[in-house]
Specification:
Helices cover 41% and strands 24% of the residues. It is of the alpha/beta class. The protein has a five-stranded parallel beta sheet with strand order 2-1-3-4-5, sandwiched between helices. Strands 6-7-8-9 form a four-stranded antiparallel beta sheet, with no helix packed on it. It has a three-stranded antiparallel beta sheet with strand order 10-12-11. Helix 3 (62-72) links the parallel strand 3 (50-54) and strand 4 (78-82). Helix 2 (36-45) runs parallel beside helix 3 and helix 6 packs across helix 8. The two termini are 25 Å apart. The model is unreliable at 125-129 (pLDDT under 50).
Amino acid sequence: MNDKKLLIVEDDPNLGQILSEYLSMKGYQSFLFRDGQEGLAAFKAQGYDCCLLDVMMPKMDGFTLAKEIRKVDKQVPFLFLTAKSMKEDKLHGFKLGADDYITKPFSMEELLMRLNVIFRRNGKGAHVQTDTFQLGSLLFDNKNHTLIRGKEVIKLTSKEAELLYLLCQNINSTLDRSAALKIIWGDDSYFNARSMDVYIAKLRKHLKDELKVRIITIHGQGFRLVSD
């Protein structure tokens, strides 16, 4: 069980229940509330490590709730969940101090990866709480963007390191292509997708001497870092 406590404030009962159950299944402690007033009362009653806030809610909208939360805790990270995709709304959310902003509909895998990124960025530890991964005879040091094999040190670009880090976080599971594109490149456009393919090819070259480690393409879904 992860010790991270998540405050989920979502007025759609179906989505809220799915979010709560999925994140609980992934090890988080999830607490679901149906409107902004309930969410604020819950936040004041006990601390949380991250807040997932719907924007359009009765009694108190997500933006107002975020302002009230900030009066109580200046540091707690929060992420907006919303059907709104207008640039002005996103900018408003970030001005309020949001760590991220995800537009409905979204995949649960994308949300999980975004939470991991938020926790890592805020120094509270992501769901996978390490910056180093052993890949066969290679040691991947994400903090320093290097692959190390004995005395050999391979320097990675920031994009290579970000992509390999997401693959490592989902090792032996499929990394959703669209989710990874949105996290690393900002959107899943055709051109960014082609760019990702280039970086996948570069990572495969770095791993070519590792017989038990490989990146495979899962057609129509994404990529999987396999470690036997």
